[in-house]
Write a structure and sequence with these properties.
amino-acid biosynthesis, NAD, 358 residues, disulfide bond, 13% strand, Rossmann fold, NAD(P)-bd_dom_sf, six-stranded mixed sheet, AlaDH/PNT_N, alpha/beta
């Protein structure tokens, strides 16, 4: 029998990130199965360190993963700090490095320089290619909620984490009255997890959204898209497709669309389906003006935050951890889910090295 893996959950470098890929209840399951789990201190994490200690985890100072034993898997969510330049461990997090995103080459170079590997959470898939652990539902929910609150003039900045009842109360409070009269919202990718979350948030806000998926985007009706007030995009594509919205669409004199929420935020990738902006927005300033408008044509604003589920850190972390924990339990057994993730990394490295020498 192979030795059980060692996991080291790091503190998140991004200050607005309060989620955890593994919550205390699921960490306890891993410890019971013989895993060695270390959790770094983190003042911003939504789950107290004492709860992990009670689950049987060991603790370490924030950022000390660089000195972790060489065979530890370093578990996180968002980007790593810029140092060290050599990554020697196997890391499990959302690397956003396989579709030529900005900074992808440098991240892959850090892994090849140190002999480590990236087991990207986005590429943990089953035999049918479906992701086995995702924040999609809560990303869609939070993205649509911010769109509604901004459109109704009820969005308070900088953003602060909430719980589900608190966010729902804000949505429901504006569900009647002049602000919500005749609001038209479109969700693209409505049949997926992310799209379902967006539709649920809109329903809480008293809006019955238009729901588009593959059939509607195959031959997309741009005029119909522009006839909505709100657009929530939840489509993440692995290969380039015709864009859903272009700069020319924003200049259409008949445009009604006034707010775009891009949940997927694939902005620096050639797979971006909304090439109308070139930089994401942030918690401090979540809304950016794309067009000023004029006459009967309204201004159009953008929300493009790449860690939306952190707006609901407890609910989203528990849902994600419940999906990830069974996969972590199979980490020692060369399970196909992890084999595919390793192959995705090796393919990305080979492609990057090939393009660098072309």
């Amino acid at each position: 029998m192979s030795r059980m893996p060692r996991l080291w959950m790091r503190h998140e470098h991004r200050t607005s990130e309060r989620r955890a890929p593994l919550v205390p209840e699921d960490a306890a399951q891993l410890v019971e199965q013989g895993f060695h789990v270390t959790v770094e201190e983190s003042a911003q994490r939504a789950f107290p360190l004492d709860d992990y200690v009670a689950a049987g985890c060991r603790t370490a100072p924030a950022g000390s993963w660089t000195a972790a034993p060489a065979d530890d898997y370093i578990l996180g969510l968002k980007e790593l700090p810029e140092e060290p330049s050599f990554l020697t461990h196997h890391h499990i997090f959302f690397g956003h490095a396989y579709k030529q995103q900005e900074g992808a080459g440098e991240l892959l170079r850090r892994f090849t320089a140190g002999g480590g590997a990236l087991l990207d959470l986005e590429y943990l898939t089953d035999d049918a290619g479906r992701r086995v652990a995702a924040f999609g539902y809560w990303a869609g929910y939070a993205g649509a909620a911010l769109a509604v609150l901004s459109h109704r003039g009820r969005l308070r900045t900088p953003l602060r984490p909430l719980d589900r009842p608190g966010l729902d109360a804000l949505l429901a409070a504006g569900a009647t009255g002049a602000a919500s009269d005749g609001e038209r919202a479109l969700v693209i990718g409505a049949l997926g997890r992310c799209g379902r979350g967006a539709c649920d948030a809109l329903a809480t806000a008293g809006i019955a959204p238009t729901r588009w998926d593959v059939a509607e985007t195959r031959d997309l009706d741009h005029k119909a898209l522009l006839s909505h007030d709100l657009l929530v995009n939840t489509v993440l594509t692995p290969c380039p497709v015709p864009p859903f919205l272009t700069p020319a669409d924003l200049d259409d004199p008949d445009r009604r669309l006034s707010l775009i929420t891009d949940v997927t935020c694939d902005v620096t990738s050639e797979c971006n389906v909304l090439p109308v902006y070139d930089e994401i927005t942030a918690w401090e300033h979540p809304v950016r003006r794309l067009r000023d408008g004029g006459g009967p044509v309204p201004p159009v604003n953008l929300i493009a935050i790449d860690n939306l589920p952190s707006l609901l850190p407890v609910e989203s972390s528990r849902a994600f951890s419940a999906e990830l924990c069974p996969q972590l339990l199979r980490l020692a057994n060369s399970d196909p889910v992890w084999t595919r993730a390793r192959l995705a990394f090796e393919t990305a490295v080979a492609d990057h090295e090939g393009s660098a020498h072309a």
